Amino acid sequence: MQTIAFYNLKGGVGKTTTAVNVAWHASRWKHRTLLWDLDPQGAASFYLGVDQGEGYKAGTVLKGKQPVGRLKCATRWPNLDAIPADLSMRNADIKLVENGGARNRIKQLIAPLGESYELVILDCPPTLSPVAESIFAAADYLFVPVIPTHLSLRAFDQVREWLDNKKFGHLTVVPFFNMVDRHRDLHVEMLVKRPKSMKGGLKTWIPYSTHVEQMGDHRAPVGEFAPYTPSAQAYRALWFEIAGKLKL
Ligand SMILES: Nc1ncnc2c1ncn2[C@@H]1O[C@H](COP(=O)(O)OP(=O)(O)OP(=O)(O)O)[C@@H](O)[C@H]1O
Ligand SMILES: [Mg+2]
C-alpha cells in the first residue's frame, strides 16, 4: 500500500480537487483506492457524493481507539472508497494529541487498510497543525499544488523549510503548478523558466478551467462529465506522472 497526500499550507490552491481527480483515475486503473477526507470542510466528501448523516463523528477516530476502516463508504465508482469528513474534524488536533503519540497516529490507523487498498490518498486541511504532522509521518509522497505566483511559491518554501527542520526524512515532497492561466505573463514565465523551489516537481500542470469549478455541480471528477477538455486531460497526465512514481 502506498500513501500520498495533497497538501499546502495555503488554502484554495486545489488540494481537494486534485486529490479527487487523481483518486478517480487510480480507481479507473483498477487500483483499490481510498480517499480519506481529513478536512472538516468536507469538500472531497461532497465531490464524491459521500456526505455523512447526523451523529457521525469522523474526528473521534483520531483518538486512536477505533479502527478507521469502519468509517469507509463506497462511492458510486468501483474501486474507490472514501472516509468522509464531518464537523467533528474541527477539533481533530485536540483528539489527536489527547492520548499522546499524535505524530504516528494516522500512520497506525491506516496500516491495517493495506489488506483492502493499494493506494490511500489523504486530502489535507490548509494548516501546519498536529494533524498535518501526523499526515506527513503517514505519507510516502506529499504532492503540493502551487499557483504560479510569488506568494504561492513563498508559502511552499515555508512549508519545505518547516519540513526540513522537523525531519520527515522518508517523505518525498513533489510540487506541481495548478490553476495556470496562460493569459498571465507571470504564469507563463514560471512555466517556461521553472523557479528553483519547483525542482523535482511534476512536469504536468493543471490549467485554470471552468470545468474544474463545475465539479461541485456534478459532484464528480472532471474526467467523468467533461472528459475531452484540457483540464480533464491534464488530470489524466498528472495521474500517469504520479503513478510512475508509486509502487502499485
Ligand atoms: N484548475 C482549476 N481551475 C479553476 N478552478 C479551480 C482549479 N482548481 C481548483 N479550482 C477551484 O478553486 C477552489 C479551491 O479548490 P480546492 O477546494 O481544490 O482547493 P483546496 O486547496 O483544497 O482548498 P482548501 O485549502 O480550502 O482545502 C474551488 O472552488 C475549485 O473549484
Ligand atoms: Mg481542500
UniProtKB/TrEMBL annotation:
Residues annotated as domain AAA: 1-161
PANTHER family: P-LOOP CONTAINING NUCLEOSIDE TRIPHOSPHATE HYDROLASE, PARA FAMILY PROTEIN CT_582
InterPro entries in the cross-refs: AAA_dom, DNA_Partitioning_ATPase, P-loop_NTPase
Official protein name in the record: ParA family protein
A Pfam family assignment: AAA_31
CDD domains assigned to the protein according to its UniProt record, in alphabetical order: ParAB_family (cd02042)
Source superkingdom: Bacteria
